[in-house]
Automatic annotation (TrEMBL):
Belongs to the class-V pyridoxal-phosphate-dependent aminotransferase family. Csd subfamily. NCBIfam families: sufS (TIGR01979). InterPro entries: Aminotrans_V_dom, Cys_dSase_SufS, PyrdxlP-dep_Trfase, PyrdxlP-dep_Trfase_major, PyrdxlP-dep_Trfase_small. It comes from Plantactinospora siamensis. This is cysteine desulfurase. It catalyses: (sulfur carrier)-H + L-cysteine = (sulfur carrier)-SH + L-alanine. One of its GO terms (molecular function) is transaminase activity.
Length: 427
């Protein structure tokens, strides 16, 4: 028995599924729901929903705004959530900025760096014409477009690493592309299309040797396997709550304390102010400098509850469970004639996202047929157009697994794809 199989036995999937009532619902034709779209958004367990509901039922008040009991308790919940989320990724509480999503986190960082450039801020954070930002073809649009826009605003130049035919990051040109002109290296930890896990520590080490800052999109990794920010070598790291069992409207920007302290704010208003006069304003230290307005305290409580739940389950066990499901899916789908996996064919350095194409059937038609069977998958370019172009496919069908999925659901996916081939006359 492999280590992964042993760990899977330690994860009581039936008990896990009991936390997710939505998984018991029926779909079209009274078929059971097979939810294989956690890469887009995960389902939410009862304890996360209860944490959010409890805040509204017992402590609902504006955080940092009042001296009455409810406001004090609301503030304690919010700042306590920050401590629990920070612990989940091995950070200090002051290094965790709450945002509404990973997308907002990347934009916050890109605009703050742009503001530092305009204001003549610290040289470490200032971009000049001809400076370079290095990204990769693996990126989700959320970790590509903000850097494109920052280049347009500052005169910096965007460069990128390509991908291999297996959908992994191609490091062959890394030495050539990294130079004294490289100021930022932004890369995904795990691709939302191919599932490939990038060697972030190795890239970060080389980037730091030329003085570049390293920004990691961890939206597809933090929910699925242990992530420790310092071990990664990340200067900044972003992830979303809704992909890791937490409510919508939650996200995190992690930044090393000394770097956050250098950054000017992205948005301004109440709650992030130190002193205001009619002529000028000064701003609070991080992380509050980057959290204007009334914070999403109830949602933060839900995010912290999700982190606690995942910690109790054990992220290593979660990862092993997904690895076993992914291996089963790669084998079952790979055995079907006319089905091609887009991405690595093994589970080595690979997450639980499996994208594929079926000869002669458009991915949207595959997804729609699977939906008729109660199987929820994602179709399209998955907000990663450049990656699909690089791999020579206009779109894919994507199944993504999480801690509540079962081997039977993987088998249902493979059987459903086979039925789709028969239905469209491609058997």
């Amino acid at each position: 028995m492999t280590q992964a199989e042993t760990a899977v036995r330690g994860l009581d999937v039936a008990a896990v599924r009991a936390q997710f009532p939505i998984l018991t619902r029926r779909t079209r034709g009274d078929r059971p729901l097979v939810y294989l779209d956690s890469g887009a958004t995960s389902q939410k367990p009862l304890r996360v929903l209860d944490a959010e509901r409890d805040f509204y039922l017992t402590r609902n008040a504006a955080v940092h705004r009042g001296t009455h009991l409810l406001a004090e308790e609301a503030t304690d919940v919010y700042e306590g959530a920050r401590e629990r989320v920070a612990a989940f990724i091995g950070a200090d509480a002051g290094e965790v900025v709450f945002t509404r999503s990973a997308t907002e986190a990347v934009n916050l960082l890109a605009y703050a760096i742009g503001n530092a450039t305009i204001a003549g801020g610290p040289d470490r954070l200032r971009l000049r014409p001809g400076d370079e930002i290095l990204v990769t073809e693996l990126e989700h649009h959320a970790n590509l477009v903000p850097w494109q826009q920052l280049c347009l605003r500052t005169g910096a130049v965007l460069r990128w690493l390509g991908v291999t035919p297996q959908g992994r990051l191609d490091l062959a040109d890394l030495g050539r592309l990294l130079s004294a002109r490289t100021r930022i290296v932004a890369l995904t930890h795990q691709s939302n299309v191919t599932g490939a896990v990038s060697p972030v520590p190795a890239v970060a080490r080389l980037a730091h040797e030329v003085g570049a800052l390293v920004v990691v999109d961890a939206a597809q990794s933090v929910p699925h396997f242990p992530v420790e920010v310092r071990g990664l070598g990340a200067d900044f790291l972003c992830f979303s709550g809704h992909k890791m069992l937490a409510p919508y409207g939650t996200g995190v920007l992690y930044g090393r304390a000394e770097l956050l302290d250098m950054l000017p704010p992205f948005q301004t208003g109440g709650s992030m102010i130190e002193v205001v006069t009619m002529e000028r304003s000064s701003f609070l230290p991080p992380p509050h400098r980057f959290e204007p307005g009334v914070p999403l305290a109830a949602q933060a409580a839900g995010l912290a509850a999700a982190c606690d739940y995942l910690t109790e389950l054990g992220m290593a066990r979660v990862a092993a469970h997904e690895e076993a499901l992914t291996g089963r899916a790669l084998a079952a789908l790979g055995a079907l004639p006319g089905v091609r996996i887009i991405g690595p064919g093994t589970t080595a350095d690979r997450g639980g996202t499996v994208s594929f194409v079926v000869d002669g059937i458009h991915p949207h038609d595959v997804g729609q047929y699977l939906d008729e069977l109660g199987i929820a998958v994602r179709t399209g370019h998955h907000c990663a157009w450049p990656l699909h172009r690089a791999l020579g496919v206009p779109a894919t069908t994507r199944a993504s697994f999480y801690l509540y999925n079962t081997p039977d659901e993987v088998d249902a996916l493979a059987a459903g794809v086979r039925r789709a081939q028969e239905y469209f006359g491609r058997d």
